[in-house]
What we know:
Distance between the termini: 16 Å
Oligomer: single chain
Number of domains: 1
Strand content: 35-45%
Number of strands: 9
Structural class: alpha+beta
Largest sheet: 9 strands, antiparallel
Amino acid sequence: MSKIRTLSNAPIIEALVDIQVQLPADISKQHIDDLKNELSDSYPESEDLFSLSAQIKIEPSGEAPSSEHQQKYTGCRLRSSDKSHIVQLRTNGLSVSRLNPYVTWDDLESNATELWNLYVKHLRPEFITRVALRYINRIEVPLPVSDLHEYLVTPPIVPSGLPNRISEFVNRIVIHDQNIDARAIIIQAFEGVANDKTLPIILDIDVFKEGRLETDDKDIWNKFTQLRDLKNQIFFESLTEKTIGMYE
């Protein structure tokens, strides 16, 4: 394991706080629009979000099946004027993203706390169902590279006897931390898009806790601190000291 410490040039391309909720039945698009309007000075760009469902109807007469499509409003996505922050106001929760360049956890937590308080004020969620942190990192491995073990603790392994030139890979595992009753989805991926100097590898860490929480629970941000500690452990366990040193 690499030593956990603060990196001056962390390879984070997106850091996201997500809170999923159960809303009252009387909440409508207008409630989300009211909140969107309150945030319009800081987040002037917006687009509505929809889910699409389809049903296929089998005709008993033997006629060709017919299909019906339904579009349902699920919220809106807001973007700050400097393009560094994205906020999703949804009918099932709130997401707050900080894009590259990432600053600090304190900055992200402060922004998410402020937006959560406004979300609660306007949409009156009955309770929380899930809290999550997701950090997407882009690791730029310098070329040429003969062995990915120099950079990744658990790189993909090609069976002996096969050509060992890898053009793409995806590795996904889900772990459970019983100490804090949280789960983590860890994805390492290379999609075959490289330049002449580096091999870009994505390390995507999604940590979350599920279960009912009250919306006024003061402990919610302590739970995010626990999730952040788990995320940091996964990050430093996944990369070698050589890789970590590239971002100090």
